Structures are given as C-alpha cells and as structure tokens.
Fold this sequence. Notes:
Elements: E1 17-22, H1 30-45, E2 49-54, H2 56-59, H3 66-83, E3 91-94, H4 100-109, H5 114-118, H6 121-127, H7 136-150, E4 156-158, H8 164-181, E5 190-192, H9 227-236, H10 255-268, H11 272-279, H12 284-309, H13 313-342
Parallel strand pairs: 1-2, 2-3, 4-5
Helix pairs in contact: 3-12, 4-7, 4-13, 7-8, 9-12, 10-11, 10-12
Bound molecules: adenosine-5'-tetraphosphate.
The site of adenosine-5'-tetraphosphate has 22 residues, from helix 1.
Amino acid sequence: MSEPVQTPQTNAAFRPRIFSGIQPSGGLTLGNYLGALKRFVEKQDEGIETIYCLVDMHAITVWQDPDKLRQQTREGAAAFIAAGIDPARSILFNQSQVTAHAELGWIFNCVARMGWMSRMTQFKDKAGKNSENVSLGLFAYPALMAADILAYHATMVPVGEDQKQHLELTRDIAIKFNNDFGVDFFPVVKPIIEGAATRVMSLRDGTKKMSKSDPSDQSRINLTDDADTISKKIRKAKTDPEPLPDTLEGLKDRPEARNLVNIYAALAGHSAEQVIADFAGAQFGTFKPALADLAVAKLEPITTEMNRLMKDPAEIDRILGEGADRAEAIARPIVDQVYDIVGMIRSRRR
Ligand code: AQP
C-alpha cells in the first residue's frame, strides 16, 4: 500500500507562472497544436510568465534515433515560434540543457510511490503487453514531468486531457515532499485544460487519441503537412453515413463525427454547439470540405513559417541555448534549496 497523501497547501506564496512541454518524439500533430501549443500562445499573450520546453529527456523513454531527435527538437522549436511563441516574452528551451530537471527528477523518484506510478494509464497504454521490456524511464516519466514543472515553482500547466492524471501525480508529489520535510516549498499546480479540442482523436478511429507515434500517418495531421495533404486526410477521415444532427446530444455515439466537429470548433475559436448550429443537417460531403478549408487556412501559415525557420538551424539552437540560460537562472536556486531541505551537503566552492 502506498502512503496516503495529506492535505494540500495553498498557493498564496507563489507568483503565477506557467510551465509546459512537448516531446520531440516525432513531428507535432494537430492534437499537440489544439490541445497544447495554441493554449501556450494564448497564455503568453495574456501576459503571464511562461516557460516552454521541448522535453527531449522524456522523448528518449522510447527509442529515438539521435540524428532524428536533434531534427525533431529543432522542428518542435520552429513549430512553437511559428505558432506564436515569442522567445523574448516566453522562455523556450530544450530540457536536457538544464540539468535541474534530471536532478529534481531523481529526488522525486525517491518521493513518488511505486503504487502511484503503477496506476498511470499512459504507462499502461504505452507499455501494453510489453511492460517487462519497456525502459525504466518510461515508468518514471511522470516523476520527471513533476520535476519539469516544480523546478520552476510553476503554478499552472496548460495541457491536453491525456495529461490530467500526470498532473494529479505532480500535485501528490509536491504535497508529499512538503509534508515529509515539514515545509511549504512546492506549489500545488493547477492544470489548464481548455478549449473545444482538449482530446483530438485519430482520423482513422474516433476512440483513439491522435498521436505523433501512431504508425498510420493517415491517423493524424502533422504541422509539416502541406495544404493538399491536409485536405486529403480530412476528406478521407473516417465518418458515418448520417448527416450532422441539430444538437450536440445527437453526436453522443458518433465519436468520429464528434471529433471533426470539435476540431472545427477549436480551429474556428467557436464552441461545438455553435458549429452544430451552423451545420445542422449537413452531410459530410459539405462539412469535410469546409473543415479542410478552415484547417488549411489556419495551419498553412504555421507550416510556411516553420519551413522558413528550419533553414537556419544555428539560429534555432541559439534561441534554445539562450532560453536554457534563462531557465537555469530560475531553476538552479530552487533545486539547490531542495538539496538543502533533503539534507545533502553542498560545500563545493563554485
Ligand atoms: N490528441 C491530442 N489532443 C489534445 N492534446 C494532445 N496532446 C497530445 N496529443 C493530444 C497534448 O500535447 C502536449 C504534448 O504532448 P507530448 O508530446 O508530451 O506527449 P503525448 O501526450 O504522449 O502526445 P503524443 O502526440 O501522443 O506523443 P507520443 O506519440 O510521442 O506519445 C500535452 O499537453 C498533451 O496533452
């Protein structure tokens, strides 16, 4: 039995600060964009302090070809900037350049309980029947994620629906650390799961999450897809023969139709109810081309800008390095205090 987590503390002592990350484990998808990246930009534009990260150490919890990992990390950074992240206003970097993540991740491996980790549904989904052969890192993933967030005393984390359980675990780790050491050191983070598409589903199966590691490229829209590819993928997306209903309730047992309506709503900045009101009774022969046009109009400028930025990888590396310096300046003193709280001697002259 794992030990019970005790009462949460308040966040009154912590200034509002946002942290979130995306794995460079493949090219980013429409799911990453609508569930995470688009929100990241909104939070930056609201004027909250924002720290965003390409979590390359999370990516290697499953095999990554080294050259591809470098390429995907740069491409991820280009996607952030092309989508509207301004490296002067947000801190943008790759995780492995700031060692505080790995250091605090280890401490949290010693705070988190095996029972908590065993309940993580994402580990069960990713490991499947192969749990004896997956990396230890994949199992410990949520403790490193807690470290990513708490190394900055971040108070809010914008994520897609699939990360909700990991954020609950982050809260549990923060609370247990505070209780174990009798401190009020870590904030209890708040997930921000907002918008009409917090869980974008596969275009081939409306019960499965759209994912960059899905073996079928037809299941997802990649941020690198050109206009023609986006249109084709949407036109070929799995649907059913019924027209769109006149209420959202009518989409209850139609996961593929519901998914396309949600994607339309999120891209247009409307509610799903509004989309249903606009397209009630429409056949997919009408709705899919409208969705394809909207997706191309929203995504094509991002893809074009990504391609431009990718022509100068040295500039991307410079931006990531500068972001890492700024991130380090926040995380280092926090992690140094953690060592002190835990009882580790820090006597080196630096
Ligand atoms: N389908 C999705 N709908 C909404 N949000 C999504 N996110 C991912 N997929 C969807 C959100 O994107 C952020 C970054 O996710 P990640 O790259 O760290 O890992 P993931 O959640 O495991 O995403 P993928 O695409 O499925 O990656 P792989 O295939 O490498 O495992 C998170 O905020 C996530 O919620």
